[in-house]
Write a structure and sequence with these properties.
Blueprint: H1 2-26, H2 28-46, H3 51-74, H4 90-125, H5 139-168, H6 176-179
Subunit structure: The complex comprises the extracytoplasmic solute receptor protein and the two transmembrane proteins.
Organism: Thiomicrorhabdus heinhorstiae
InterPro entries: DctQ, TRAP_DctQ
Length: 183
């Protein structure tokens, strides 16, 4: 039972973190809209442009998606082939989530970390910047988001696996809105 208590505490803390972090990241969409509008106004209103501003749109886009993917996973809003899953009992859903996380999500995260490591290290070694004159100089930081994504999504996958395991053990888990007050 102590083991279940640890797992439950981890699930609640991780889900709480993802909720707060995901909501923070969501505000990045506002900066994305504002910067995009600025680029359009400058281009068509003043016949002026900025490579750095255009690249900042790409950076913002990457930040939003790479930092927000774990939140999307936690909210169960990711892409899912829902031919049978929607009709499954909660117990079968928990089993599918547990097996899917252990067999698919976590191994993919491990592979992604392994496959991207040299790519990211090489970028850091040369402090890689934009290939375009006047562009942003922090491509190495942007590439580092791959490892941040692996960490965030890996932790959330562990939380989903733990939550699924607890459900299979018959442990009831409060929904996030109610869990916030218990932390």
């Amino acid at each position: 039972m102590a083991n279940n208590s640890f797992l439950l505490h981890f699930v609640l803390k991780q889900n709480s973190f993802q909720n707060r972090f995901g909501n923070l990241v969501a505000w990045g969409t506002l900066s994305l809209v504002l910067i995009t509008a600025l680029v359009v106004i400058l281009r068509y209103g003043f016949d002026s442009g900025s490579i750095a501003l255009q690249e900042s749109i790409m950076y913002n886009h990457a930040l939003i998606f790479m930092l927000g993917i774990a939140y999307t996973y936690q909210q169960d809003q990711h892409v899912r082939v829902d031919i049978f899953y929607g009709r499954f009992s909660e117990r079968k859903k928990a089993l599918v989530n547990l097996v899917g996380t252990l067999v698919l999500t976590l191994p993919v995260m491990i592979y992604l970390a392994y496959a991207s490591w040299d790519y990211i290290v090489a970028s850091w070694q040369i402090h890689e910047g934009s290939a375009d004159a006047g562009g942003l100089g922090y491509v190495f930081l942007l590439k580092t988001l791959i490892l941040v994504l692996v960490g965030l999504l890996g932790l959330q996958a562990l939380s989903i696996a733990a939550e699924s395991w607890l459900k299979l053990q018959g442990v009831q888990i409060a929904h996030q809105e109610h869990a916030e007050g218990k932390l």
